[in-house]
Design brief:
The chain is an alpha+beta fold. Helices cover 50% and strands 19% of the residues. It contains 28 helices and 30 strands. It has a seven-stranded mixed β-sheet, with helices on both faces. The chain has a six-stranded antiparallel β-sheet with strand order 10-9-11-17-12-15, with no helix packed on it. Strands 20-25-24-23-22-21 form a six-stranded antiparallel β-sheet. α12 runs antiparallel to α14.
């Protein structure tokens, strides 16, 4: 049934409905909107079909009614590639065009990455609708992110650059001789010279300025005052004034701006050309990552060996990799032994030995032998693809500092237009200057101002910084994480696997009620059911000594303090001394002395009780990582406080802390309490970065102002960390904070130069310095300065490509030396 005239029908996907009463609640919530004619909920399909009056309400109001009722609305997200943007106003124009589509919830356009991230209702909007809106706004839709169209995008960029080069050559090739003919004595009468300039300049002007006028027309059609509108007004005034002087309409032959109009258009085109080239280089890091994946793979199937596109490899395929070839996908080695260079993924310079059962990562290089491995993760599931996706997501994000620039861009052009007209009126009508001077001031102000530099200040720095971080093994999830990294005042560390290697081993055993073999056997039988590193150390020790290990008939964990189980009919308790004390098991004095000595040496004491009797003690040591002391020292040198949060008792924790240089210890903290300790630190006024393993420490990572998941290796899809480190090296955690400081310093530097440029040169263009210096700021100079401003900001961001954190330059040698 078609909707009534004047109404629109929408289908919304609803989440959270469980029964018929839920659907009634949603229907009633929608019907309370007076603009809703009808609302029907399909519980089986989880959809709500709404007929409403679009003149009185919109999709956002309908979705708000559903969410206010306690249910959710399912949205889709797409990242689109956009071409043809030249300034921050272009990005705003596309955002407004996308947001105007019924069903689009949010749209964010990143000028530097040339991407639009759109959240929309998939039942109302298709991706093609989004592309059509971009095209209708006068820009180019280049497809979805992740589609195999990189070559098309590069080809489009090269074609655009080549077109601009031609226009630049024509512009300067015509305007320079015209300018020389004005400066040098040619003997040609001014009226005739004026007509010659008209004949020569007009074709060149129309050719060079055509893209500017076309973009200005698009802006006006979209009711947007873009920079192209300003530029078109500037060069248009110059050309029209010249034409009026040539024809003798109001103005005389003295008003000759032909060479200025053409040179202005050439300078503006040059600025856009240099900016586009520089912006293209900001994405080099991610392109280098994407190029690591080989285009083809050698697959062994029943019919024999065949070379297939890497996209056609499926999990379970047996893949052959010869010496010197790149591993195409992730998998596990089944045949062969050799060394694989994983430096491009993990940053470790030493090749890694691989044999049957070892994992290989797509994009790494097989060095010296033939390997056959079983494909496991392909396509977007590979480590390399996940890294690329994470970096792309971060590069397209907006840190809070960008809001300053966004607000400035919103009012910039209207203010500039007022200043330009005000300068003309002031000089000509109030100060009695010549019309020629007043026109020069008007044109200069229209041309010199550049919000593009403001629009590019933040995204280019974030884009290059995130890309550089990926090259250094530091995966940053968002621009906001970089900003938070800069603000950190205290860094809190988990101990096991973070400050230490995470490979604890049994160092001492003190038998009491049981002999050594039975003590280890009973403890290992219970701990075999646990995945805790200390439990694994006990099981490994029993296996190494050939101790027979039975199986636990029952097993239970005791809130982070230990475990309990029944082995051979006996109740076995394994855990901390505090656990045995709580259970009423008293340790003899010799055991207490041994425990104290071990703890003072930084070892963890595990107590074993059997049938309410103390059976013995086991000491476990986890060696501190070689680079940990240097990393802690580097953080102190950066002016940061350092703390350790651990479940160990205070004596053991303080021994480890003293060894690595930490003076603030929070000991005896259960796993579920670490997040609460982070909140206490925050309540005391600290901005906390928490460094942990990303899995056991997920709540603390999520609670901290900056969560750094360390040593994730090939598991980059950790949701808890704001920053994910590929290597298990604390120096990289320090480097992540250094990266945040460096990128945000560059952002502020970019914003400063963008503001300084505009606040300094707009008054100069308006003629403010003329009464004091006699210098007229010619429009050609204004156009050159405008071109320089954006290029300067992008170039400053590009300097980050070669930056290396001090701790990575010096730390590893110092830490291992």
């Amino acid at each position: 049934m078609e909707p009534e005239e004047g109404t629109r029908r929408a289908e919304l996907r609803v989440s959270g409905m469980h029964c018929a009463s839920c659907s009634l609640v949603v229907e009633e919530a929608l019907r309370r909107n007076p603009a809703v004619r009808s609302a029907r909920v399909n519980l089986a399909a989880n959809t709500a079909e709404v007929e409403y009056d679009p003149a009185r309400t919109d999709i956002a109001a309908l979705e708000s009614a559903i969410t206010d009722a306690g249910y959710g609305v399912v949205h889709a997200t797409a990242t689109l590639r956009v071409g043809g943007m030249v300034c921050a106003v272009c990005a705003r124009t596309i955002e407004e065009a996308l947001r105007s589509i019924p069903g689009v919830v949010e749209a964010q356009v990143n000028l530097a990455t040339e991407r639009a991230r759109v959240t929309f209702n998939p039942s109302l909007v298709q991706v093609r609708d989004l592309g059509d809106a971009i095209e209708a706004a006068g820009y180019h839709y280049l497809g979805l992110e992740g589609e195999q169209n990189d070559e098309a995008e590069r080809a489009a960029l090269e074609a655009d650059l080549a077109d601009r080069r031609r226009r630049i050559l024509v512009g300067f090739g015509v305007s320079i001789p015209l300018m020389l003919s004005m400066w040098l004595s040619t003997g040609i009468p001014m009226p005739l010279l004026s007509w010659l300039h008209l004949a020569i300049a007009t074709p060149a002007f129309l050719y060079v300025a055509a893209p500017i006028f076309r973009a200005a027309g698009i802006g006006l059609r979209n009711r947007t005052l873009s920079m192209d509108v300003m530029y078109a007004m500037g060069i248009g005034v110059a050309y029209v004034a010249s034409l009026m002087g040539t024809l003798g309409i109001v103005l005389s032959h003295d008003y000759m701006f032909y060479e200025t109009a053409v040179m202005l258009a050439a300078f503006l085109t040059l600025g856009r050309y240099l900016e586009a080239r520089a912006k293209g280089r900001t994405g080099q890091a991610i392109r280098a990552l994407m190029d690591l994946a080989p285009p083809t793979a050698t697959v062994l199937r029943e019919e024999g060996e065949s070379e297939v596109r890497v996209e056609d490899v499926v999990p379970g395929d047996l893949v052959l990799v010869r010496p010197g070839e790149r591993v195409p996908v992730d998998g596990t080695v089944e045949e062969g032994e050799g060394f694989v260079d994983e430096s491009m993924i993990t940053g470790e310079p030493v090749p890694v030995a691989k044999r049957a059962g070892d994992r290989v990562i797509g994009g790494t290089i097989n060095q010296n032998s033939v390997l056959r491995f079983r494909a496991e993760r392909v396509g977007r599931e590979t480590v390399l693809a996940q890294i690329v996706a994470l970096v792309e997501q971060a590069q397209g994000s907006r840190p809070p500092v960008q809001r300053v620039a966004d607000r400035a861009v919103a009012w910039f052009i209207p203010v500039e237009l007022v200043v330009a007209i005000g300068a003309f009126v002031a000089w000509y009508f109030l100060l009695g200057a010549s019309l020629l001077f007043a026109l020069t001031a008007l044109i200069s102000v229209l041309v010199v101002a550049c919000p593009c530099a403001l629009g590019l200040a933040t995204p280019t720095a974030v884009m290059v910084g995130v890309g550089r971080g990926a090259e250094l093994g530091i995966l940053v999830r968002s621009g906001e994480a970089l900003e938070n990294a800069e603000r950190v005042t205290l860094v809190a560390f988990d101990k096991t696997g973070t400050l230490t290697r995470g490979n604890p081993a049994v160092t001492d055993v003190l038998p009491l009620a049981l002999d050594r073999e039975r003590l280890l056997g009973a403890a290992a039988a219970v701990e075999a059911n646990s995945q805790h590193p200390l439990a694994l150390a006990i099981v490994d020790a029993a296996g190494a000594e050939g101790v027979p290990v039975g199986s636990a008939e029952t097993f239970d964990t005791l809130a982070g303090r230990g475990v309990r189980g029944r082995v051979g009919g006996q109740e076995v308790l394994v855990g901390s001394p505090a656990l045995l004390a709580k259970e009423g098991i008293e340790l003899p004095q010799e055991a207490l002395r041994a425990a104290r000595d071990w703890e003072e040496q930084g070892r963890t004491v595990v107590c074993v009780g059997v049938d309410s009797q103390p059976a013995g003690l086991i000491a476990i040591a986890d060696p501190v990582k070689e680079t940990t002391p240097r990393a802690i020292q580097a953080l102190r040198e950066m002016g940061l406080s350092v703390a350790m949060i651990t479940g160990d008792n205070r004596r053991t924790a303080e021994a480890i802390a003293a060894r690595v240089g930490i003076d603030r210890v929070l000991a005896g903290v259960l796993p579920g309490e670490k997040a609460e300790e982070v909140r206490r630190l925050q309540a005391s006024g600290e901005r906390v970065a928490f460094v942990g393993d990303g899995i056991n420490d997920a709540p603390a990572l999520a609670t901290a102002d900056l969560g750094i998941a360390i040593g994730s290796g090939t598991d980059v899809a950790i949701e808890s960390g704001d920053v994910v480190l590929i290597r298990s090296d604390l120096l990289d955690a320090v480097a992540a904070i250094e990266l945040g400081r460096k990128v945000m310093a560059r952002v502020r530097q970019n914003i400063f130069w963008a503001f300084f440029y505009n606040t300094a040169l707009i008054p100069v263009g308006a003629g403010l310095i003329y009464p004091f210096t006699g210098i007229v700021f010619r429009p050609e100079w204004a156009a050159g300065a405008m071109a320089l401003s954006s290029v300067t900001v992008v170039s400053l961001s590009l300097l980050l490509r070669n930056w290396t954190p001090r701790v990575q330059r010096e730390g590893r040698e110092g830490g291992r030396g």
